[in-house]
Amino acid sequence: MILTRIISIVLITCVVTHSVLAQEEKYGEFINHGIQLTASMIQGSLFVDDKNGNTLIYTVVRGEPAHLLAFDVESKKLVLDVPLPKADGVWDLTQSTDGDLYIPGANGSLFKHTPGTQEIEDLGIVLDGETYLWNLTSGFDGEVFGATYPGCRIFRYHPDHGFSDIGNGPVVEGENYVRSLAFHHRTGLLYAGIGSRAHLIEIDPKTGNKKSLLPEKYQDKEFVYSLEIIPGKNGEDRLFALLTAGSETLIYNLKTKVFEQEIAGMDMKAITSDKAGKQVYLTSKGNTLAFDPKKNFGKSKVILKESGTANAFLHKENGDLLMLSSGGNLIEYNIKAKTENRTKLAIPGQPIPINAITFGPDGKVWTGGYLAGGHASFDPSTGIHQEHKGLDQTEGMAVFEDKIYIGIYPKGKFYVLDTKNEWNMADSNPKALGQIDGQSRSFALAAIPELRKMAFGMIPEYGKLGGALVIYDIDSEELKTFEQPVPKQGISSLIFNKGALVGGTTISGGLGKMPETKEAKLFVWDLGKMKVVEELVPVAGASAITGMIEGPDGNIWGMADGTLFIFDVDSNSLISTHKLYDFPEFKSHIWRSAFLVLHPDGNIYGTDNRMLFKIDPSTKAFTKVAEDTGLLVMGDDGTLFFRKATELWSYKPKSN
């Protein structure tokens, strides 16, 4: 589906009151072309009764900021729409025993809301150093527990006592994620799912005592991604645990301490059961199923076809089953009568950040969105903007002839868009080229015109080190993968220069795995021998090499943690380095930072660390031009395009 709108062009003049924009104005003309990408992607969802007994469905629509929504189940009307400050998404919701709704912000804050009201309360950052919250679960007497990143910790919150760290540090040393949580009300024990190397931990929140439960055969998985507890007869409650990579769900009997089943293909965003636990309701492969957890999953029955993936379930005392799908459909199903009612809820779209940018062969600026995905095109000559739905999160794009090649997360996927034809997913435009096992993201793309090939540099999956180099033959449509050109390092940049493919690496791998090398490398890949023929460190101690371009002298100019380097492929030698600015201390990972372009005015322009800057190639003099910018491409007329969060901006340097 294509949504079209005309963007009004707003010139930022020197009378703008914002001091930063006033400062930027003296360097040239800045234009804000507005929000490019929107989405109605819903995440954490929960059915809740307000104090008057009205059933509401709460959900969070992703955006900047994310919005907490509530719909009245009976009327289907939107009764709440409030922003969550500084949070771009929410993965879970939980209701405490005292009736309050808790919302884990993606910025590390916990929010509180009383169902039926119009207010939210920001309770602040849960634990120092924790920047992301995942699942929540409710405990006793108004308490809630939450899962954090990057410290792999569990917090407790109680209205009378505030926040505390119940594990006294990482739940598992050396890991970053507590990804999932479930509280067992019968015993008072917590169950925590860990990643990016999978662990299942039983923890007593009162004492902090921990016990590892995951059988050894599953410990090569990435995450225990989701946990749910279903009640059973005679105390035989069951814990459902979803494992990734792959999609296997384990059923663990909390009374007998036995793993009873392994189920493939089961969704685990939400499951529910009747009060006695005789029937469990879940979604799998787009359908809603019911099964007796004491019997083999193969005996489950489809009760609703094409229902989608459940974001939330509610099994009511009268036997009705309510479900909210990830696509925003509210389904009301009477189990006895086998009747159903489906309503597409009016989820208001929200702006999402620009995550990738390129200047297309059609003269348009193409952008890809984070995290909800989607693409947009902007025609600078007409001001016409179009949104294009259908693809997941784009990490990188590159142009060859009339086509745009696209690297997609997750699972290392590649697509190609023919810009001579309309965007039409049903007609394979963009067309899927394939995907690479064990690889996750492609930020680095480069065309190899002489050989009619494309190169993709990869970042590996969660918890792994070592990115692959992937070569795509345009004519034969064949993908070839070359594992870890530089061992234990990902590929953060690529350029074809003087007949050679040159790659820049990052010491980072997939999330949840700390580097095991100390500095990024430059490597030369021989396209005939298909192997590395030269390798060097251009800047000692740098964590990533990004932004490589062909400079005014024909050599490669690139950035490594705030330092400009110049490399000659002919002699395989480093010509010079020039520190331009201080670079932030390495924390968890770095996959990309600088972007450079050689401008017709003779200067090099770049973005890095949320700024736009200029380099004089002859003197290497560095000038900061603007703040709060990222990504960078140049149009045919020398206009520079970059992002400011959700907005596309352009800049025309003043003539000398």
UniProtKB/TrEMBL annotation:
Q: What is this protein called?
A: WD40 repeat domain-containing protein
PANTHER family found in the cross-reference section:
VIRGINIAMYCIN B LYASE (PTHR40274:SF3)
List the InterPro entries hit by this protein, alphabetically: Quinoprotein_ADH-like_sf (IPR011047), Vgb (IPR051344), WD40/YVTN_repeat-like_dom_sf (IPR015943)
Q: Which domain of life is it from?
A: Bacteria
The portions of this protein that span the membrane are none
Q: Which SUPFAM superfamilies match?
A: Calcium-dependent phosphotriesterase (SSF63829), Quinoprotein alcohol dehydrogenase-like (SSF50998)
